[in-house]
Write a structure and sequence with these properties.
Blueprint lengths: L18 H4 L1 H9 L13 H9 L5 E5 L2 E5 L9 H11 L4 E6 L5 H13 L5 E3 L6 H4 L1 E3 L1 H7 L6 E3 L1 H8 L2 E5 L6 H4 L1 H8 L1 E3 L8 E3 L5 E7 L10 H4 L2 E6 L5 H18 L8 H16 L17 H18 L6 H12 L6 H17 L3 H13 L1
Parallel strand pairs: 3-10, 3-11, 4-7, 7-10
Antiparallel strand pairs: 1-2, 5-6, 8-9
Helix pairs in contact: 2-3, 3-4, 3-5, 12-13, 12-14, 13-14, 14-15, 15-17, 16-17
Length: 382
C-alpha cells in the first residue's frame, strides 16, 4: 500500500493560528510606521500597541517589497479604549495585570492580542485548573536523563514563565483562580524578585528575568470565590474589570465580525444578515438584564449570556443552515440553537425562556415578521 505523503510543515493547515501569525501584516505595518521608542523587549511602542488592539480609522500606507500598500488595522477588542490603555500601562510597569470579568467577555482574547503586539508571542500560556502544579509555573525535569546524568541545565524543562523571563516576554496565566492557593503563591516570589531559583543546580542556579517580562492573568468573576488570591499576590496585580457589552450596536458588531472570521476559518459559505444579528443581540441583551427596552421585566436566567455565547449561537446557526437547511441563515436557525446556550447551568432556566417567549417575543411577533419567525421556531424547539 502506498504511503500518503505528509504535507510540508509550512503548508500544513491549522485550526487556529496565534494572533501574531494571523495578524502579522498589521503588526509589521505598525512596526514600520512606529514613531515612538518601544520599552525594553517590546516589539511596538505603547501607542502602536493600542492602535493594534482598538484599530485605526484609516489604513496605514507602508512599503512592502518596494511597493506602497495600504494595510487596514482592524479593531480586535470592542470596549472602552481607556481600559486598554490602563492594561498597556500596567504591562509597561513592574506590576502584573489581572483581567477580571464574567465568562465570555473577551479577557483571554484581549490578553492574547496584548501579548502578540508587545512581545510577538502569545503562546507562552499556563492554563489554570485544579490540577495545575508548581512545576508548570516554574520548571520540571527530564526524569530519565536526571537519573542517568544527574541534574544539569540540559535536563531542565523550562515552564512558559521561565521562557518568558529569559526572553523578556509576556506569559499568559488563564483562569488563575482555578488553581489551588499553594500553586498561586508560587507567583509571589516571581513577581517580587523577578527570578526563579533552581536549587538542584550547583552553578547558574538562578534564572533572572530580562526587562519586558510580565504576566497577564485572567479570572472569571464567577470563580473568584473558588480559590481567591492571597493578599500578598493581590498586591502584585493591577486589577482591570472587563464588563459585559451592554451597547446593542457594539454587540452586533462583535458578533458580526467574529462570526465572519470563524465562518471563513471553517469554510462555511454563509452570511449573517442585519435582521438576524439584531434579533440575536436583542434577545441576549434583554435576557441578560431581565428587562426589555420598553420596561417589561421578567426573571433572568442563571447562565451568563455573554457576547461569546451569542457568537457561538450565530456560528451553530450558520453551520446548521449550511448542512441541514437552505444555506441562508434565518432567524429560525438562531432560535433553534438558542435553547442550548440559555438552558446550560440550570434546567429552571427553561421556564425563564418560555416566559420570555410568551411575554416578549409573542407580543412582537404580531408586528414584526422576524420576531414571528423567531417565536415559532423557539417554541417548536422547546
Amino acid at each position: 500500500m502506498a504511503k500518503t505523503k505528509e504535507p510540508e510543515p509550512s503548508k500544513q493547515e491549522v485550526l487556529r493560528e496565534p494572533a501574531e501569525v494571523q495578524y502579522r501584516a498589521q503588526l509589521a505595518a505598525l512596526a514600520q510606521r512606529d514613531a515612538d521608542t518601544p520599552p525594553a523587549s517590546w516589539k511596538l511602542s505603547p501607542r502602536s500597541v493600542l492602535a493594534y488592539v482598538v484599530g485605526t480609522a484609516k489604513p496605514l500606507s507602508v512599503k512592502i517589497d518596494g511597493k506602497t500598500v495600504d494595510v487596514p488595522i482592524t479593531r480586535k477588542f470592542f470596549g472602552d479604549d481607556a481600559l486598554v490603555e490602563r492594561a498597556i500601562v500596567t504591562l509597561a510597569s513592574e506590576r502584573a495585570l489581572l483581567l477580571v470579568g464574567e465568562p465570555g467577555t473577551g479577557k483571554s482574547w484581549l490578553s492574547e492580542h496584548l501579548a502578540a503586539a508587545i512581545s510577538g508571542c502569545s503562546t507562552l500560556t499556563i492554563q489554570g485548573t485544579a490540577g495545575t502544579t508548581e512545576d508548570q509555573i516554574k520548571y520540571a525535569w527530564n526524569i530519565a536523563r536526571v537519573i542517568a546524568e544527574g541534574p544539569r541545565p540540559d535536563n531542565l524543562i523550562p515552564s512558559p514563565t521561565m521562557l518568558a523571563m529569559r526572553t523578556g516576554g509576556l506569559v499568559r496565566f488563564e483562569e488563575i483562580t482555578r488553581c489551588v492557593p499553594d500553586v498561586q503563591d508560587a507567583l509571589v516570589s516571581i513577581l517580587s524578585d523577578k527570578n526563579i531559583a533552581v536549587p538542584e543546580l550547583p552553578d547558574a542556579n538562578m534564572v533572572f528575568a530580562r526587562p519586558g517580562f510580565n504576566i497577564i492573568a485572567t479570572a472569571n468573576s464567577r470563580d473568584q470565590g473558588v480559590n481567591e488570591l492571597s493578599a500578598a499576590l493581590k498586591r502584585r496585580f493591577n486589577y482591570i474589570h472587563i464588563p459585559v457589552v451592554g451597547d446593542h450596536k457594539t454587540e452586533v458588531a462583535i458578533v458580526r465580525d467574529r462570526s465572519r472570521e470563524l465562518l471563513e476559518r471553517y469554510k462555511i459559505p454563509a452570511r449573517l444578515e442585519e435582521p438576524v444579528l439584531n434579533v440575536l443581540a436583542t434577545v441576549f441583551r434583554e435576557m441578560r438584564s431581565g428587562m426589555t427596552t420598553d420596561g417589561t421585566s421578567f426573571p433572568k436566567p442563571s447562565t451568563t449570556l455573554s457576547t461569546a455565547e451569542a457568537i457561538g449561537v450565530a456560528l451553530d446557526a450558520a453551520i446548521h443552515a449550511r448542512y441541514f437547511g437552505s444555506g441562508a441563515v434565518g432567524v429560525a436557525d438562531i432560535a433553534r440553537n438558542l435553547v442550548g446556550s440559555i438552558v446550560k447551568e440550570d434546567l429552571g432556566d427553561l421556564q425563564v425562556l418560555k416566559e420570555y417567549l410568551a411575554v416578549v417575543a409573542k407580543k412582537r411577533s404580531a408586528k414584526d415578521a422576524s420576531w414571528k419567525e423567531f417565536h415559532e421556531a423557539a417554541v417548536k424547539a422547546l
